[in-house]
Amino acid sequence: MESFFLIKPGEILLKQDNQKEFTTRLIKEIKDRLGTIPSRIGDSPGRFFLSVDQEHEIAAAFVLAHCPGLNGYVKAYHGAKQSDKIIGTVLEVARKASLQGLRTFKVETRRSDKSFPLGSYQMSASAGEAVLASFPDFTVDVRNPELLITIEIRERAYVYGNAEKGPRGLPSGTSGKGLLLLSGGIDSPVAGYLMAKRGMALESVYFHAYPYTSMEAQKKVERLARRVCAWCGHTRLWVVPFTELQMKIKKAAPENATTLMLRMAMMEAADRLAKRIRAKALISGESLGQVASQTAEAMQVTQAPTDLPVFRPLIGTDKEDITLMAKKIGTFEISVLPYEDCCVLFSPKHPNLKPEARELKEIYAGLDLGVFIEDSLARAERLTYGYEDVHKEFERETDRV
Ligand code: ATP
Ligand code: MG
Fold first, then answer.
1. Residue whose CA is at the smallest distance from ligand 1 atom 27
2. Which of 40, 99, 234, 395 is most buried, by the most CB atoms less than 10 A from its CB?
C-alpha cells in the first residue's frame, strides 16, 4: 500500500523569475532527506505530490514537517471519480479524526472537472450526510469546524482532512550558505533554525576550550548540530580548539575587556572559516541587551573583525520567546543539559558596559592573534551530518511519544 501526500509550497509561489529553480530545489531537498526511502514526487501548478510505501509514512511526514519551503502537507486519498468511492474515503478520514477526538466538521468540494455528474454542493451534502449517519456524535459546523474534509474533483478525486503545518519559508540553500556560531546554549540553535527557514544552508562552528569546557560540552553541541540538521537537511560542525587563544587573551588583555576580546577572536575565526567554506554570512544567537557583550556598543566592537553580514535573527526577542521556539524545534532539552560554557569561566567580574569602540579595536589589534587563529583553524575537527542523522532525530522523536 502506498501513502500519498499533497504538499503545499509556500513563498516560492510568489517568486516570478526563479520559481522553477526554487521548485527544483525543494523537490531535491525532500528527496535528499528521504534518503534511502523509495519515493515518487510529482508536481502540478501550486502543489506537489509525494508517495512512499505505507511503512515509511511516519518518517516521510517527519521529513515534510521539517523541510523549509513547505507551508503544509496532508495525507490524501486519491482514486476514481465515483461518488460512492469518494464517500467511502470521506468516512475513512472521519474515522481517523474521531479517534483524535474531533467532533465538529464540514465538507468542502472543489470541482475543476465540470463533467463530474454531481455539483460541488451536492457532493458535499451527500458526504456530510454519510458522516452524520456513521458517526452519531459528529455535528456540522460550517464556520469553525474542528475537521475540514476537502474533496477535489480534478484529473482524479482527492479526499483529505486537516492539513499539517510545514515550517514555511524558503527551501534550504536558496539564500546561500550561512555559518552559525553554535554554542551549547538555548539561543544559537534557534537562530540557526530561523535562518534555515529563510533558505540558508547551514554549517556551524563551535569554539571549544578543552579542558576548561568538558568533552560533554562538545557532545552537547554535536547533539544540537544533529537536531538542527533535521531542519536544514545536512550540515557540518567545525569544532575549533580555542584554549590557547583564551589563555593568551586572559594573559594579555585588560581584565574588563576579556569577554569582548574573546568575542572578537571568535568573529575573526568565524570570518576566516566562512570565507573558506563559501558562506555568505555569519549567524549568531545574540539578543539585544541579554548580557553585557550584547549591547549595541558591544556589538559594534565584536563584529569589527568581519566584513560579512552578521545575522542575529533573535535580536528583538526575549528569553521567553526563544525558549518557546527552542521547545518547538526540539533543541531546548539538549541545551539545558548542565555543562558549563567557557565564557562563564572566563567572564570578568565587572564587564565593560560602555565599551569605547576605537580603544577596544586597538587593544584587539595589539593582541596580534592572527597566527593563533590560523593555528586553531588548522586543528579544527570537522563533523558531518546528513539524512541518516535526520532519521535518527525522527527515531528519537518517535521513541519519546
Ligand atoms: P546561546 O546564546 O546559544 O544560548 P549563550 O547564551 O551561552 O548561548 P552567549 O554568551 O549569549 O551564549 O553568546 C552569544 C552568541 O555567541 C551565541 O548565541 C553564539 O552564537 C555565539 N557563541 C558564544 N559562545 C560560543 C562558542 N563557544 N562557540 C561558538 N559560538 C559561540
Ligand atoms: Mg545567549
1. 207
2. 234
